[in-house]
Amino acid sequence: MRKYMYMFIVLLIVVLSVQSIFALEITFVVGDVIVQRNNKDNIAVVGMKLSQGDIIVTKSASIAELLYADKSIVRIFENTKVKIASIQDNQENVSVINGVIKAKIAKLQKGQSKKVYTPTTVCAIRGTEFFVAVSDSSDSRVNMEEGNLTLVNPYGEVNVHGDEQATAEVAKKPLRDDNPKNPELWKNTADKDFLLEPQKYAASYEEYLSMLEQRSSMQKAEIEKLTQSPVKKKDSKKLEKDLDELENKAAVIEDDFCLGDCANAAVDHVLQSYKEKKQEIFESFNKVKQQADRVVQQQKANYEAIMAIKEAYRKSYEEIKGKHKESIEKIKEEVEKVQGQ
Hints:
By secondary structure, the protein is an alpha+beta fold. It is built from five helices and 17 strands. The chain has a 17-stranded mixed beta sheet that branches. The chain is globular.
């Protein structure tokens, strides 16, 4: 009996682990939709579970919808690439590499977080409905329908409310604007502008990646200082404060990593799209790609390092809290013994 109970517990843990890894799924597909996983193309079907790193590609006249665990929905329009950026720690974040999506996000619960990344901005969501468009140049556009969100990148941030619009161009601060164009029309216009002056956009990309690289170097130095100062068995309140500060640092490092990763994928998209069509564009962005690879490699190393440090602090905090609980229990036992005499 105990053997079967043990097997049941193991099975339950496995099931729960799979559910936590696969928190997003495809619930609607029309046309030609592909899920790229581990460098392999898979035909998207309703009910397919998605994991971190998957890329959903919709072809011409095709649509797909993703469902979150809390019933939030992301609709992916035709000719669009979306990556599952992260599924962990109550977060389910996606990156729009190129194309247009519409997100309808449920009201967030305490401790829950959702973000939509583009190559040029982080959309921090607080329960809302909005469109996101990303052009071939990686300029990004948000059209709100209701609710509010904050657009953040290394150059600044802006809050967008109600039915407002905002644009985040490469190497620039996000800005609200009065442009009434719908997302698809905005993207078509931006793609045409990109074809007219590709070298200008390549130069902006180099400036943007240099900014991310500078931030990454500073973050690396901070992480090295933390690594050289091992976790001390402090009181739980002080350790809890340190852990909160680490959470904030880790969130910034993760955002930068996801921005860099999305930008790198966007440059890949340009190279794939224009290799046969426009040699000048391919040559300009091939140089940018080398820079993007270098930046993302360092950002990934920073992210993995800060997460390891955070885990060490978390374990120390839980150990202290556990010992404190044990002490309380022992005191209770002693009191009960005295009372029983």
